[in-house]
Amino acid sequence: METILKIIKYQLRDVLRSKWLIAYLLFFLLLTYGLFRFAGDDSRVIISLMNVVLIIIPLVSCIYGTIYFYNSKEFILFMLSQPIERSTLYTGMWLSIAISLSVSFIIGITVPYLLLGQVNVQNLYTFALLAASGILLTFIFSSAAFLVAVTNSDKARGFGISLLLWLFYAVVFDGIILFTMISFNDYPLETPALIATLLNPIDSARVLILLKLDISALMGYTGAVFQKFFGNMLGILIAIFSLILWIALPFVTGLKLFKGKDL
Q1: Are 214 and 232 contacting, i.e. CB atoms less than 8 angstroms apart?
Q2: Tens digit of pLDDT per residue, the chain (263 long)?
Q3: Nearest to 70 by CA among 167, 151, 164
Q4: What letter does residue 212 receive in the DSSP assignment?
Q5: What would the DSSP string read from start to end of 123-192?
Q6: Do 208 and 40 form a contact (C-beta atoms < 8 A)?
Q7: Each residue of 178-204: b (16+ CB within 10 Å) or e?
Q8: Where do the DSSP E strands lie in 24-147?
Q9: What is the CB neighbour count within 10 angstroms for residue 85?
């Protein structure tokens, strides 16, 4: 554990100097500030932020995580020449990327909210769910990016797979679900819709936020079914649990492959 913390500390110091990370923080800072200035209502701001978060965070986490792993190859080889376990190195590197991106995101949306938002119990809880969703998506797609990088030695190929992974879950997956729902609308599709929601971390994060906002018109078919079967509180807990599984599965898979990989 002590070694992991040392790796995280060193890597965070290196990552935090990145201009891309600063640009990432400024993007959310200016976006959130602009939304509060022009939208006014906190619910509208959260909905607008949600639409951006569900697209930008998976994209940046995939790209930045993949590039970071490939660019750290010399560091990885050097560290593995030391008496350090591969699992410790892999975990420390992954946590440093996920934590740095999460901190930038949180600072970017929290500062404008504290300055311009209506800070009360209801709004604070909803805003906390938005922040939690962003953090969970960061960890999910960072672990997926590391898995892609571990399984593909070629940098260009790994980068392309990461982009396709993001495109599939952000755009293509919902298109497939919509086409399926239209094609088989004469059949009971509630159970498949629930399963489909849990199979896409972006959809699970969207449902997590909208269940609290209780805006049925924006939830879509899968979100409405989710609310009908589980209700608000149980639905939120199930969505969070599914997102935690989405973090664990690619991370554990990537870790096992990294431990046996010939570098």
Answers
A1: yes
A2: 666 777 677 766 766 677 888 899 999 999 999 888 887 677 788 888 888 999 999 999 999 999 989 988 888 888 888 888 888 889 988 998 999 999 999 999 999 888 887 777 777 888 888 899 999 999 999 999 999 999 988 888 999 999 999 999 988 988 887 788 778 777 766 777 777 778 889 988 888 777 766 554 455 555 566 666 655 677 778 888 899 999 999 999 999 999 887 66
A3: 151
A4: H
A5: HHHHHHHHHHHHHHHHHHHHHHHHHHHHH---HHHHHHHHHHHHHIIIIIHHHHHHHHHHHTTTS--HHH
A6: no
A7: eeebeeeeeeebeebbbebbbebbbbb
A8: none
A9: 12
Q: Which residue has the tokens 């939690």?
A: 132
Position of tokens 């973090």? Answer: 247
Amino acid identity at 113: Y
Q: Which two tokens stand for residue 110?
A: 């929290």
At 125, list the tokens: 């809880």
